[in-house]
Every structure is written in C-alpha cells, then in structure tokens.
Automatic annotation (TrEMBL):
The keyword Manganese does not apply. This is Protein translocase subunit SecE. It comes from Candidatus Comchoanobacter bicostacola. InterPro entries: SecE_bac (IPR005807), SecE_sf (IPR038379), Translocase_SecE/Sec61-g (IPR001901). Keywords: Cell membrane, Membrane, Protein transport, Translocation, Transmembrane, Transmembrane helix, Transport. Coiled coil: none annotated. HAMAP family: SecE. The gene is secE.
C-alpha cells in the first residue's frame, strides 16, 4: 500500500515536471526567442500534450476530471428560469435601481443645500 502511494506521488512529480518544462519552453519561445514560429508552435503543442497527460495519468488530474464531471451533472440538474421569469425579474431590478437612484439624488440635493446654508 505504501509503495503504491509512493509510486503515485513520484509519478505525479514526474508529470508535474513535464508540464513545468513545457511551460518554460512556451515562455522561452514566446517571449525570449521571438520570431521562431515553428519552435513556438511546438512548445505550445508540447504544453497541451503534457497537460493532457497530467489530467489523464496523475492522481490530481483524476480528481479534477471527477470534479468537472460532478459539476457538469449538477448543472444538468439545475432548473433554469423561463423567458417570462427573466423578463419580469429584469424589469423589477430596473425599477428598483431607478427608485434607489432617485432617492439618492434627492438626498444628495437636500444635503448639498443644507451644507451650503450651514457654510454660507
């Protein structure tokens, strides 16, 4: 059990090192060695491949893929509002914003006049 857990951690570290090297290659060919389009394209491709390998073969990637699948299933269970509910809610929010804006504008005007009377 312990050796299996240890091999998982070593495997994850190797894959993370691969992703890190690919990221450094992308950075180097994108920002330092500007103008090397084929190498830049190869670096981006190697980054995508290494991320795919990380997601497929590492424990963290496996957990992430499980999280994405669970999130997708949760979104599929959401009861989305229909068009009428959205329109009614949007109008209610617009009216509330207009009323609050009017109240704040009136209070601002009153406070400006009161302060001008006080300060002269």
């Amino acid at each position: 059990m312990e050796t299996e857990l240890m091999s998982v951690h070593i495997k994850d570290k190797i894959i993370i090192g691969l992703v890190s090297l690919a990221t450094l290659a992308v950075f180097y060919f994108q920002y330092i060695m500007v103008g090397s389009y084929p190498l830049n394209l190869y670096a981006w491709f190697s980054l995508l491949v290494s991320v795919a390998i990380f997601l497929r073969f590492s424990h963290v990637g496996y957990q992430f893929i499980g999280y994405v699948k669970a999130s997708r299933a949760e979104v599929m269970r959401v009861v989305w509002p229909d068009r009428r509910d959205i329109v009614v809610t949007t109008i209610a929010v617009g009216v509330a914003v207009a009323i609050i804006s009017g109240v704040i504008t009136l209070l601002d005007g009153v406070l400006v006049r009161v302060l001008s009377l006080i300060t002269g």
